[in-house]
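Entry 14. Ran structure prediction on the chain below.
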Amino acid sequence: MARPSSFLGGNMTEERLAVAQLLQKIIAEDKNVLVNYEELLAKLQEGGVSGGDYRAINNALQYKIGAVLNSVEPDSADAIAQGRKDLQKVLQANNMLAARIEFIVDIFTYAVGWQEAEVGLNNGTAQTVHESVSAEVKVTSERKTDSLVAPSTDIEIYAEDDKTTVDSNVWICPTCGEENDLFFCENCGCAKPEPQKNNIEIESWACLQCGRQNTGKFCIACGAPQLQQDVNTWVCTNCGRENTGKFCTGCGNQR
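Output, structure tokens:
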């Protein structure tokens, strides 16, 4: 059964909670692993973290979120709130998907103890982790009610801004169908396809080195520059298409 998360109004599943608790254990042994994160990643893999969760954590650590986490002294609610905002800014600046930003903020703020510290500050007493979760859900609910008559909170504004920023960078891999926000598909490694501008078909050219179809000045497969297309060109006798490689790009007929 899903356990409520204290961040961004989401839900922390048992699987996500397990990742957060594993992170908490690793960081408790040595907080420096947030900066020198190769050991942290190795221990996560040993603990069974893999797939999209592992890739998201790996990317976030490469974006230097460890420095943000280590720079915050959770001695006040304001300091913790500012720390969360700084985390979001770093991840948004690197065009991470909104769902992954929520995941990273959830597990890392849980792991470094910000959640428990904030609840203790709000209530004036130390609480267990489970009591902390319940108290934070109550606070989140009250904030949602207040938002009906009050201006939106900073976190809501960031989430709205992120939706606009990130969506423009998301693309679907034409090879495997994976949703990505980087230049290469995280699932199969396929390069991000060139965009079409204003729904106008962009004239493509075939790379003389590897035969890949391209629209820019350099081949996206091997990096070779676009050469003059009148060099070694030939016209297919079957369909009339002008080509440069050994096979016609229109019908597949051999030169």
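The two ends are 62 Å apart (CA to CA). Will compare against last week's run tomorrow.
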